[in-house]
Amino acid sequence: MEIESLSEIIKKRRTYYASDFSNEPLPREAVETIVENGLWAPTHKLTQPWRFAVLEGVHKQEMGVFMANFYRELFTIEEFSNERFEETKRYANNATMIAILCKPSSRLPEWEEVAAVSCAVQNMWLSCTVMNIGGYWDTGAATIKYVENCMEIKEGEKCLGVFFMGNLKQDLMEVNRKRKPLSKKLSWI
Ligand SMILES: Cc1cc2nc3c(=O)[nH]c(=O)nc-3n(C[C@H](O)[C@H](O)[C@H](O)COP(=O)(O)O)c2cc1C
Questions:
Q1: N vs C: which end of the chain shows fewer Cβ within 10 Å?
Q2: pLDDT digit string (tens) for 1-31?
Q3: How remote is the C-alpha of 47 from its chain's centroid?
Q4: What is the CATH number of domain 12-55+94-140+150-169?
């Protein structure tokens, strides 16, 4: 592989929300390939502090309903929109969701373990890009609460959010989230 190909994949990777997903489900093998690539991320002392759980079936509906009700509590009556509320209930209907769990090792600073999980998520995200699958990392309070309520979280484990994935709808507008130039972020000392 040439570096130009890798650079192209890295720069092509984008956040795609669940509202961008079509109702064509992801095959199990695709999900497994993506998570398998996550497992090859580097970890200090090879701790591999992660665990992933696929939320499918009833979770697609239940996540949306939970999010809608969670955010409803945060809005004033003036801010609340019933249309938005109903839309949020259906938000995750087309998503395959992967709960991201981290159990930091006591032998390392916690940030290193979180960084390692982030490397795993980036591997998954880049894999999605190559496979033309949409995805994004959701670390919202409602999303994390939903995971904590719906599955067993082991002692010492933390939920670091959910990776949402799905086949992309046709004719989506390309999202252009520009980056600051190298000259502003790299200095040679
Ligand atoms: C650790 C992490 C947490 C994120 N959490 C959220 C989130 O909770 N909600 C959201 O809309 N996007 C979330 N994102 C996605 C970012 O908003 C997105 O990556 C950023 O806007 C850049 O867009 P791009 O991914 O298309 O390049 C998260 C990204 C990272 C790396």
A1: C
A2: 899 999 999 999 999 999 999 999 999 999 9
A3: 21
A4: 3.40.109.10
